[in-house]
Each structure stands twice: as C-alpha cells, then as structure tokens.
Design a protein that fits this description.
With 141 residues, this protein is an all-alpha fold. The protein has one domain. 76% of the residues lie in helices and 0% in strands. It is built from 3 helices and no strands. It holds the Pfam family DUF202. Keywords: Cell membrane, Membrane, Transmembrane, Transmembrane helix. It is found in: Cell membrane. This is Putative membrane protein.
Amino acid sequence: MPEDGRRPIDLTQQYLANERTFLSWLRTSIALIGLGFVVARFGLFLREFQLVIQREAAATASTTTTNIVLPEHSFSSILGVMMIALGVGLIFYALKSYRDGNRQIESGVYVPKKSVVYTGAVLLAIFGGVTIVYLLIVSLP
C-alpha cells in the first residue's frame, strides 16, 4: 500500500480487455486466411474443371466443329492470395496494437485507434464487392 494510504489502482480489467481485443483480431485474421485459402482453391478447381470440359470437347470435336473457349480463372487465385496476405498483415497489426495498448494502460493514457477499424471494414467491403462481381461474371453464360 502506498504511503499516502490510497489503494493502488487495479488495471486487471483493462489488461484483460486488451487481451480479448487481441484475440478477436487473431480470430478475424484466421477467418480471412481461411477464406482466402478457399477462394484461391476455388480458382484451382475452376481451372481443373475447365481442363475436363476442354478434354471432353476435344474428344467430341471429330463430330462437332464447335470449339469451346472458357475464361481464365486466375483472378480468384489472386484474390485469395490477397486475402491471405491481408490476414497475415492483420496478425502483425494485432500484435503491435496489443503491445501498444499494454504500454498505454501502464502509462495511464489509452487512445483507441479507430482508423484501422475503418480501413479494415472498407477493405473487406471492397474484397466482398469484387468477389460478387467476379462470381457474377463467371456465372454468366
């Protein structure tokens, strides 16, 4: 107990809240990495499906003169890799934010960082919009 008779301030709740925030960022990062992997693998599936259709078209080409040309699906692979990179970047950001938060709690001055939350939300919305447009283009005849 300090000499002036006051009890020390217990910062346990602030540290635990900072840790929960860190774990939330990690869960979000893992979800992004997993979704990016699925999107990238979907592109690989589409390319293999394209090869199967082209083989079948080549087998029946002796009876038919139509040549089927399917679009490339490498965009989904690029989008998936970008989502994985964003997830990995968020992990590093989460660690830095957690350490900065602990330092700020110790010093008694905590300032929340809102810009990264807004930036992350906007980037995810853009990724979602691009994915929707891509899927609509791919599904059109």
